[in-house]
Specification:
With 315 residues, this protein is an alpha/beta fold. Helix content is 36%, strand content 16%. It has 12 helices and 9 strands. α1 crosses α2 and α11 runs parallel beside α12. It starts with 25 loop residues before the first helix and ends with a strand. Pfam families: Methyltransf_31 (PF13847), PrmC_N (PF17827). One of its GO terms (molecular function) is protein methyltransferase activity.
Length: 315
C-alpha cells in the first residue's frame, strides 16, 4: 500500500475531548462532532462525523438525513465520545468500523492487517487488462495477502476462467484467518486457497502445482523506518506489514531471489510489485542484478497522480 501521501503532523499527548454527554438529536451531535474533528484538523470532518453516528446507530446516511431530530439514546453517548477520541488520536476509521471497501467489495479489517488503499487497485486493473479475455492456464499468487483484498477481487472477476488457480499467501496466521473470513464474506471461498508461507518458500517446496503462466502480486512492506516514524496516520497498523528495511526493498529482493527457484524453461512469470515513487530506479537496478542470468522485461506503471506505483517484471 502507498503511505507517503498520508504523512501528517505528529501527534503528541493523547487527545481528549470535552464532548458533552447530554441527550441530543442526531443533527446536534453531528454539529458537535464536526466542530471537534475540524478543530483537530481531521480531513473530511463532516463525513467523519456522519460515519461515527452511522457506525454507532447501525444506520446509513439516508437515515441521518430523514431523522435529523431523532434523539440519540443515552446508552450510545459514551460510544460517541470513545469513537471521537479515537479519531482525534488518528485511530483509523476503518478499524473503528471494522470494514473497508476496496474495488467495490467490502472487507473486514482489524489491527492484524493493513487497511487497503485505493492506490493498490491499480494492480487489479493491470492484471484484468491482460488476463480477462485470456483462456491460458494460469496460477495467480498474491504474496503478503493480508486482508485478501487483491486476490479475492481477482478471483471474483476472473473465476469464470476455470483454468486459473488463485492463491493468497501470507506468513501471518492471524492475517490468513481474516483473509479467509473475507473470502466467505465475498463468496470467493471456493475459488481462493490460502497458504501460510514465508513469501514463495512453500511454492519452492512444491506445495503448490504451478501452471505454465504464473502471475505474482507482491504488495509487500516497502516503507523505511524513517517513513514509518514520520507517518502518524499509520501508527496503529501492524509494523511488520510496513517495515521494508533500510531501503524499503528487503522483501522484494528476497522474492526476486526466490523466483529463480520456480522459473523453468516452460513457464512464464509476471511479478507486479507496488512501490513508492522514489524506489523505482533502485528496484529496477535490483531486478537487473538479481535476475541477470534471465531474459527479463521491466515496465514501470504510473498511477492516476503520475507517480511510479508498480514495477512489472516478466521473465
Amino acid at each position: 500500500m502507498f503511505y507517503a501521501a498520508f504523512f501528517e503532523k505528529k501527534v503528541g499527548a493523547k487527545n481528549k475531548t470535552t464532548y458533552n454527554l447530554k441527550k441530543m438529536t442526531i443533527k446536534e451531535h453531528l454539529k458537535l462532532l464536526y466542530t471537534e474533528l475540524k478543530k483537530s484538523k481531521i480531513e473530511n470532518p463532516r463525513l467523519e462525523a456522519e460515519l461515527i453516528i452511522e457506525n454507532i446507530l447501525k444506520v446509513n446516511k439516508k437515515y441521518l438525513i430523514l431523522n435529523p431530530n431523532k434523539e440519540i439514546n443515552k446508552n450510545n453517548l459514551n460510544k460517541i465520545k470513545n469513537h471521537l477520541e479515537k479519531r482525534l488520536n488518528l485511530y483509523p476509521m476503518a478499524y473503528i468500523k471494522k470494514e473497508k471497501y476496496f474495488y467495490n467489495l467490502k472487507f473486514f479489517v482489524n489491527k492484524d492487517v493493513l487497511i487497503p488503499r485505493p492506490e493498490s487497485e491499480l494492480i487489479i486493473d493491470e492484471i484484468i487488462k491482460k488476463t480477462k479475455d485470456n483462456s491460458e492456464a494460469t496460477t495467480i499468487m498474491d504474496i503478503g495477502t493480508g486482508s485478501g483484498c487483491l486476490i479475492i477481487n481477482l478471483a471474483n472477476i476472473l473465476s469464470k476462467n476455470k483454468k486459473i488457480d488463485f492463491y493468497g499467501i501470507d506468513i501471518c496466521q492471524k492475517a490468513l484467518k481474516i483473509a479467509e473470513k473475507n473470502a466467505k464474506l465475498n463468496k470467493a471461498e471456493k475459488n481462493v486457497k490460502f497458504i501460510q508461507s514465508d513469501l514463495l518458500q512453500k511454492i519452492i517446496d512444491k506445495k503448490i502445482k504451478l501452471k505454465e503462466k504464473i502471475i505474482i502480486t507482491a504488495n509487500l512492506p516497502y516503507l523505511t523506518k524513517e517513513e514509518i516514524k514520520n507517518s502518524p496516520s499509520i501508527k496503529f497498523e501492524p509494523v511488520k506489514a510496513l517495515d521494508g528495511g533500510k531501503d524499503g526493498l528487503r522483501y522484494y529482493k528476497k522474492i526476486l531471489s526466490q523466483v529463480k527457484k520456480i522459473k523453468n524453461k516452460k513457464n512464464h512469470i509476471e511479478i507486479y510489485m507496488e512501490i513508492s515513487d522514489w524506489q523505482n530506479k533502485v528496484l529496477i537496478l535490483e531486478v537487473k542484478n538479481i535476475l541477470k542470468n534471465y531474459k527479463v522485461k521491466i515496465k514501470t506503471i504510473k498511477d492516476l497522480t503520475k507517480q511510479n506505483r508498480l514495477i512489472l517484471v516478466s521473465l
